[in-house]
Amino acid sequence: MDVTSLLSSLGGTAFTLVFFIVALSIIVTVHEYGHYIVGRWSGIRADVFSLGFGKPLWQRTDKRGTVWQIAALPFGGYVKFAGDANAASAPDAHAVEGMSPEEARHTMPGAPLWARTATVAAGPIFNFIFSFIVFTIFVLIAGKAADTLVVDEVAPVPYEIGLMPGDEITAIAGQEVPEPGALLGFLQELPREGDVSYTVAREGQELTVTGPYPYPVIVAGVSPKSAARDAGIKTGDVITQIDGAPITTFWDLQDYVTSHDGAPMTLTVWRPNGETSAEGGETFETTLEPRRRDLPTDDGGFETRWLIGITGGLLFSVGTEPVGLGAALLAGIQGVWQIITMSLSGMAHMITGAISACNLSGPVGIAEVVSTSASDGVASFLSTVALLSTAIGLMNLFPIPVLDGGHLVFYAYEAVRGKPLPDRAVNVMMTIGLAVILGFMVLGLGSDLFCK
Description:
alpha+beta; elongated
């Protein structure tokens, strides 16, 4: 039994809490290490590097005098630099009193403006870099679809399949297939029939075999907090009927859900047990109600649709080939940028009322997403951690006192005026910023508890 299975056996709450703490600890460590290492490079001494808050459970002091610790409450962390009044990096007006210029230079309030700015900005930047590295590595590992449509594996389905691994598909339903990158568009134009002919090259011979439609209703993924997830549908399931009527393609499922405006529906589901025939799996029925969701569109807007929360998969997986480092790096950058733009667009649409505030997730919703991804495997979990790392890095750049972005605004004021904000003004704004953050947390928690 692996670790994930063991934690699952302990109960859903324990599983959710453990993986939420693990994900948060990774993100916080990356963020705070960015502050720490750039501060150190800039000549600012760190007094404490803490993973968690509250009473220390473990401590070690390094040769530079920094105390590294793990604290009792594992929901965050901080770096306290010399001269900071607290873990939120509020300046201590009296910290440098009596110090020589050389000594003050190694404190946060006594360091040059450039050093303080770089140190504060490094936390969110390290979050972005972490996500970029994860996305790049995934692209390098996964590769890209080969130029020819060669079957790598055939998915288990409750139908007769003439395809075999290694087959090179040259035509489907008598139509020549395009490159794999254009396959979905090609399949949308095919007649939606239960049985389809495939022309394949196999061991030097051209054969015509019969199999199910190449885009049947195979569940390739189940979204967190979705109707499908709550109904017990899992990755690898095959939906064979809706409300007693046979269903052939994934597009038929989409059309049915869209046209029924959230009405309850009963799905007949076949679940494989490792075989590729109907005798090798079990069939059951489950009833669910589609949920309204606001989805981003290509033009930067949003559209509201009825969804059950599953993604579709092809009947077969296609062979891959390696991706060059340059292409992988570009894909990593695009992955981070897409998260940033979608997050900003979503927030703007919520503020204007164009989409529901239920799109905002609080700690409970985030924990559910993390635990769901962990149950789907290591790759899914790391992808979710990378996504959250970018989102948290972006959030920390908002110009709200208490957050890194608020400190950067203070430094921008200092750069323009030639002197820092008065301590009293900073303290008042930090209090306001804390109230704003708590307000967002309450709003997010309300979304978790009262939105489906």
